[in-house]
Amino acid sequence: MLTGKQKRFLRSKAHHLNPIFQVGKGGVNENMIKQIGEALEARELIKVSVLQNCEFDRDEVAESLAKGAKAELVQIIGNTIVLYKESIEHKQISLP
């Protein structure tokens, strides 16, 4: 689990990132979770945007993505979800 201080730190890091995934009408599927897992391994911190036509609540989407990719949910702001997972091979972010 992340502490408040670590979440603040990650939020500031994520501020300038652009969402690299979009969750639309189909919601979350296995393939998306797999790709997000790979992206997290490469980058550690990513944003996912939930489109207007998504049939699921953004909190549900965030939870299923975090669970599926075994990542930490850093923040949900508007329709954007910020996820963090410590990388095994490409560690770039050192948490306070």
Automatic annotation (TrEMBL):
SUPFAM superfamilies reported in the protein's UniProt record: YhbY-like (SSF75471)
InterPro entries in alphabetical order: RNA-binding_CRM, RNA-binding_domain, RNA-binding_YhbY, YhbY-like_sf
Top-level taxon: Bacteria
Molecular function as annotated in GO: RNA binding
Residue ranges of every copy of the CRM domain listed in the record: 1-96
Pfam families the record matches: CRS1_YhbY (PF01985)
Keywords: RNA-binding
Keyword Cytoplasm: no
Xref: NCBIfam families: RNA_bind_YhbY
Protein name according to UniProt: CRM domain-containing protein
Organism: Schinkia azotoformans LMG 9581
